[in-house]
Amino acid sequence: STSLPEYFVVPSSLADQDLKLYSYSFIGRRMPLWSWNHPNGSALVRMANIKDVLQQRRIDQRICNAITRSHPLRSDVYKSDLDKCLPNIQEIQAAHIKLKQLCVNEPFDEAEEKWLSSLENTRWLEYIR
């Protein structure tokens, strides 16, 4: 994948040949990527969607099992489809433009409540939260 770093962390129980084989199943060949960990052993792993719906369950289960085996407490994987609950890049850009317009074009001598509601309407604070 041209969008992944040269080196990245993967569960040790996944063999190199499995990773190479599975990489073709992910959109943009974006393999699961370890992004963050907590001292309790929890980790954040990002993963692109799997192209082949028929293979999706098998590959997803294999990778989730490997992640579970890598957790010190063998905790189950919690999955969240961020495409459904996060704004897309166009929505974030539109909110940023509205925020800039509000901060540059809106006079502060108007009632503070109007300015705060205008700020809320940009959705910028919601997105960065």
Structure characterization notes:
The protein has 129 residues and is mainly α. It folds into two domains: 16-80, no CATH class; 86-128. It has six helices and two strands, in the order H-E-E-H-H-H-H-H. A two-stranded antiparallel sheet has the order 1-2. Strand 1 and strand 2 (43-46) form a beta hairpin. Helix 4 runs antiparallel to helix 5. The chain starts with 15 loop residues before the first helix and ends with a helix.
Intertermini distance: 30 Å
Arrangement of strands in the largest sheet: 1-2
Q: What structural class do you assign from the helix and strand content? A: mainly alpha
Q: Percentage of helical residues?
A: 40-55%
Determine the oligomeric state from the structure: single chain
Number of helices: 6
Rg for CA atoms: 21 Å
- Compressed to H and E, one letter per element, the order equals HEEHHHHH
What proportion of the residues form beta strands (DSSP E)?
A: 5-15%
- Low-confidence segments, given as residue ranges, are none
Tell me the number of structural domains.
Answer: 2
Largest sheet: 2 strands, antiparallel
Number-wise, the strands total 2
Shape: elongated
Kindly report the average pLDDT value.
82
Family: Belongs to the protein-tyrosine phosphatase family. Non-receptor class myotubularin subfamily.
InterPro entries: Myotubularin, Myotubularin-like_Pase_dom, Prot-tyrosine_phosphatase-like
Protein name: MTMRA protein
Binding site for substrate: 88-89
